[in-house]
Structures are given as C-alpha cells and as structure tokens.
Amino acid sequence: MLHFLVKRLGGAVVVLALVAVLVFLLTRLASGDPVALLLGDQATAADIAAARVQYGLDKPLATQFVLWIGQVLQGNLGQSLFLQMPVTHALLERAEPTMFLALFAVSIAALIGVPCGMAAAVWRGSWIDQVLSTIAMLGASIPSFWFGLILIQVFAVHLGWFPASGYGDPDASFGDRLQHLLLPALVLGVLNSALIIRFTRASVLDILGEDYVRTARAKGLGESVVLVKHVLRNALVPVVTVLGLTLALMIGGTVVTETVFNLPGVGNLVVRAVLRRDYPVIQGTLLVIAAIYVFINLAIDLLYTVVDPRIRLEGQ
C-alpha cells in the first residue's frame, strides 16, 4: 500500500507540474492587457509601464513563471490584481457555495442514477429500460443553462417556492443556504445522473451474468438480497469511479450554473477573472481545481480497496 501511495503521489506531482506550465502559458497567450483594464482608459503609457513594473509583468515569461512557482511552493497563490487581496483568500471566500453545490448535486445524481441504472439493468429490454435509457440520453443532451432557466421560470417565478438567484444574506442560516442551492443542485444533479445511469446499468448487467449470481438465486436467496449483497456491491467499482469523477467535474465545472443563478462561488470568480485578465486568480484557481481533481482520483483508487478487497490483494 505504501508503494502504491508513493507511486500515485509521484504521478500527481507530475500532472500538477504540467498543469501549472499550461495554465501559465495559456493565460499569457490570451489577448488583452490586465494593467490597461485595471487602470482604465484615462491611464497614460507611463502609468501602464509603472504598473507593469509594480506587478512584475515587465519581466521575461520564464522569470515570471519561476517566481510564481516559488510562491506556490510556499503556499502563496499570488495577489489578485483587481480584488487587491491574496488569491488564497479570494478562493476561501467563495469555496463554500461551490463545495456545497457540488456535494448536494452529486448526492442528487447518485440518488437518481444508481437506482435507475439498476432498474434499467434488472428489467433489460422492457419499457422501463427504454424509458430510463431515453431519460439518460435527454439528460446528457440538455444544456445546463437552458435547464436552469426553465427551473427558475417554473419554481422561482411562477410558483415562488425557491429563490431565483444568490446565496442569501451574509448571516443567513444553513437551511436558507440550502434553499438557495436546491435549484442549481437539481440542474447539475439531474443532468449528471444520465452518465451514472448508463454506467450503473452496464456494470449491473455484467454482474447479473456471473455464475455466483445464478448460484445465489439457486440457493433460494430473495431477489432483493441477491441484488443488494451480490450484484450492487460487485458493480460498485465503476460506479464509484463515475461518482468521484462527477464530483471533481462539478467542482471545476460549475461556471455556467453559478453564472445563471448568480452564486458567489469559484466558478463566478473564474469568469470575472477571465474577463479582467486577472492572471494570478486564473492561474491559482485552475491549479487548485486541478489539484482537487487529481486527489479525488487518488481517493477513488484507495476506495477501490474498500469496495472490492480483491483489488487490494492483487496490488500486493
């Protein structure tokens, strides 16, 4: 297990190093001068040149990259050009809505996707399978912004059951926060459940054809016991993979949903940073999202050994 962890952590370091290089280069290749945007139209060429020196943007790209990586290794993601605060503080201020939204949404996706995928597999070829497969295809095809606007129109505007946008007042209770997150979580959860339905169906179908499932039925075990104890447990490995990747993608991919619902999360922060060419915020945020993605994958690999002990034995 120690060898496995060291190997995975080494791979994670290499991936994050490549991401750091790509993020830095892509932000610098984007058109637009952040200093000119920061100072406005009234700034003179001398003002812009002085500001570039102040923020270190006059140095060669290689020097800027080395200085930035040096700061990152010390736990400092840099200073936002427009917010005038450390990038770490800006991320922490906006982390709560994004994390709660991602966890809420992946829970909804799992509650929809796993039972529906199992039902589609158990009643393969029936009308239930056809309906659930059609729903999964539609879910994978519907744009999130369109679905979000529909939910706002129905449940916020016409029925008035939920807030249309925002995250509540600064002193709002946890229940009020969840009420603001329900509609965006439904958008992400329902649409992402489509992938979970398809993976669960395929995995359960593979397990249903195994000899030990037929043996369990021949021994007289109830169908519910066979499905839960023998089928679902052994079908969980690919399902766990999809759930973990879905969570990682939601954390990094809530940009559209947060914009539609005006949530003050990380996605909204990235959009504003891109529009302003706020290099430190873009670089720091994307690097953190990549790190979360990498370490969620590592956690999934470790969870495999809990879900299926045979994987642990094979690794040894």
From TrEMBL:
Domain ABC transmembrane type-1: 95-304
Keywords: Cell membrane, Membrane, Transmembrane, Transmembrane helix, Transport
Chief location: membrane
Highest taxon, organism lineage: Bacteria
Bilayer-spanning residue ranges: 99-123, 135-161, 181-199, 235-261, 281-304
One Pfam short name: BPD_transp_1_N
InterPro entries (UniProt xref): BPD_transp_1_N, MetI-like, MetI-like_sf
Membrane topology reported for the UniProt record: Multi-pass membrane protein
Subcellular localization(s) per the UniProt record: Cell membrane
Family: Belongs to the binding-protein-dependent transport system permease family.
Family annotation (PANTHER family): DIPEPTIDE TRANSPORT SYSTEM PERMEASE PROTEIN DPPB-RELATED, PEPTIDE ABC TRANSPORTER PERMEASE PROTEIN
Protein name: ABC transporter permease
Organism, as annotated: Comamonas squillarum
